[in-house]
# Entry
Amino acid sequence: MNKNVFRNLSYGVYIISTLDGGRGTGCVANSIMQITSEPATIALSMNHDNFTNSCIAKSGRFAISILSESSDSALIGQFGFQSGKDVDKFEGVGHALKEGLPVIDDSCGYIVCNVIDKMETSTHTVFLGEVVDGDLLEDSPAMTYAYYHNVVKGRSPKNAPTYLPEETEGADSSAAKWVCSVCGYVYDQETPFEDLPDSYKCPVCGQGKDKFRRQ
# Structure
């Protein structure tokens, strides 16, 4: 089976937020779907290994910040490639409280849900949430999963349902590549990597030039 066919399904790129006690936490997700319009309900798929999963289960609430094509891609590194167990993911990130949950300022819209049901699979929990608030924040196209991979050149965290370990398959294996050891971003710009300034940072996870490895 060619799992790359799943990339032809329509996905967005979202930051899911909830509360860890009184502290905001969250992660990146792409598997979200509106189920009904009245009352409005949303299904969210979340890996069991994500710290955010257990926090949603305890709090019974989650918010969705819809990233746009103009959103800072470093948000994906901030929320997608480190655990809320270890860091405060909202530190230094502009956000506002909506219905008591943090939502990202640098997004094109948000949705806040109360969990009303859930279904367990072998690897993921599917939370069903009833929408209690939502609004548009900016007039910018929503970032799609395809845009993230093809334009931003980002990769999926290992806990994402769409993660493929062979994501670089089909690339020119004869050419040397510089790859971020944190998030897997492949540098392929015209300027040779060696000529980049020491201040260069990965556009996906924000790590420094020293985190890149030649492959």
Notes: The first strand starts at residue 14 and ends at 20. The domain at 10-150 is CATH 2.30.110.10 (Pnp Oxidase; Chain A). The helical segments are 51-59, 74-80, 145-150. The radius of gyration is 18 Å.
